Amino acid sequence: MRDLIIIGSGPAGLTAAIYAARADLKPLVIEGTQPGGQLTITTEVENFPGFPEGIQGPELMERMRQQAQRFGSEHVFDLVTRVDFSKRPFKVWVGDTKHEAKAVIVSTGASARWLGLESEKRLQGRGVSACATCDGFFFRDMKVAVVGGGDSAVEEATFLTRFAREVVIVHRRNELRASAVMRERASRDPKISFLWDSIPEEIVGDDVVTGMKVRNVKTGAVSTVPFDGVFLAIGHTPNTEVFKGQLDLDEKGYLKVERMTHTNIPGVFGCGDVVDTRYRQAITAAGWGAMAALDAQHWLTEQKN
Ligand code: NAP
Q1: What is the pLDDT of residues 175-200, one digit of tens each?
Q2: Which residue CA neighbors atom 28 of ligand 1 most closely?
Q3: Whose CA is nearest to atom 16 of ligand 1?
Q4: pLDDT the model gives residue 125
Q5: Separation between Cα atoms, residue 149 and residue 180, nearest integer Å
Q6: CB atoms < 10 A from the CB of 300, how many?
Q7: Is 126 a pocket residue for ligand 1 (Cβ < 6 Å)?
Q8: 3-state SS, residue 278
Q9: What are the residue ranges of CATH 3.50.50.60 in the chain?
Q10: Strand ranges in the chain using DSSP code E only, listed in sequence order
Q11: Residue range 9-38: average pLDDT?
Q12: CB atoms < 10 A from the CB of 195, how many?
């Protein structure tokens, strides 16, 4: 049996691993199916302190992993399929393999949200995507839509201008939620335009995307706009499915914590985007990971005394 299992491998999980490994807890990090988390599908990270020139997301995560491994963390590149936190030691399954630990840190992050349209599902991978860095390359000289009005939407749109001829940000209100620097960047870009007050009703296309049916929320008018691709950037859903019935979650599925990192089960801690409904930054997730590791370390020491 181990002292600590860390579930998830974004900035929160890997920072927790650095701290826990340096405290000689020899953590096992179960990285999930997207090792490194959301930053591995971004490009340049410009706001992580210590990198004045910026750093590529995948490289930042690889560096964090190497830093943890240097102090003795172990890593499994697979998905947790079941947990039992009802009694100690806590049990965590990866398929048929059972792992046991005295403490667990949950840092499973969040995943891109979808609109929930039938046509969106049908045309996924045929022009519908939630990852510009993954799929943008396929839209050279084409016209694409990005749905959303936050930082992600602007970031995706800006990235897509490398390939696409025209990028239209389709937003349900008439102003962006994105930060000032991102808003300014988008408004200055000659390839980016906006379709305000518009909600997608249907993604149009038989085999591939040919357009999008949008409803104007102010006038109620429905029109079909031609597009070759549609990128969704409408926020995220916390990855807590596997913890349902085991840990307290809020109404949106976020893991509930008290005193920053403590879940309802003593010895199980939460950090990063899986608990964060407000900040959702790489640096805040990393800081939160450090706090969870310190809290786990203190808790484990208390159990010995
Ligand atoms: P977000 O800030 O929650 O924005 C989601 C956007 O999608 C909002 O504009 C929202 O509209 C819209 N939306 C939500 N549900 C929708 C629906 N069903 N139909 C149509 N539109 C819908 O999410 P995010 O942009 O992914 O950003 C998440 C966090 O990560 C933020 O804290 C952000 O600052 C951060 N982030 C930072 C960077 C960076 O600094 N480089 C990059 C990406 C993300 P409303 O505005 O009307 O609510």
Answers
A1: 999 999 999 999 999 999 999 999 99
A2: 235
A3: 234
A4: 85
A5: 12
A6: 18
A7: no
A8: coil
A9: 2-111+236-304, 114-232
A10: 2-7, 28-30, 44-45, 55-56, 74-76, 82-84, 90-94, 97-106, 110-112, 128-129, 143-147, 166-170, 192-195, 198-204, 211-216, 222-226, 229-232, 236-238, 268-270
A11: 97
A12: 17
233 and 130 in contact (C-beta within 8 Å)? yes
Q: Which CATH number fits the domain 2-111+236-304, given the four candidates 3.50.50.60, 3.40.605.10, 3.40.1110.10, 3.30.1600.10? A: 3.50.50.60
How close is the Cα of 234 to the center of ligand 1, in Å?
5
Substitution site in 45, 56, 133, 151 for ligand 1 pocket (most atoms within 8 Å of beta carbon): 151
At 228-237, the pLDDT tens digits run: 999 999 988 9
Say which amino acid occupies 129.
Answer: S
- Closest ligand 1 atom to residue 199 Cα is 20
Rounded distance between C-alpha atoms, residue 279 and residue 34, angstroms: 21
CB atoms closer than 10 angstroms to residue 211: 19
Q: Which atom of ligand 1 is nearest to the CA of 46?
A: 41
Q: Which residue has the least CA distance to atom 38 on ligand 1?
A: 151
Q: What is the CATH number of domain 114-232?
A: 3.50.50.60
Pocket test for ligand 1, best of 39, 201, 232, 280 (most atoms within 8 A of CB): 280
Q: How long, in residues, is the chain? A: 305
Taking the C-alpha atoms of residue 46 and residue 65, their distance in angstroms, rounded to an integer, is: 20
CA distances from 227 to 27, 160, 222 (A): 47, 13, 16
Q: CA nearest 223: which of 206, 246, 198?
A: 198
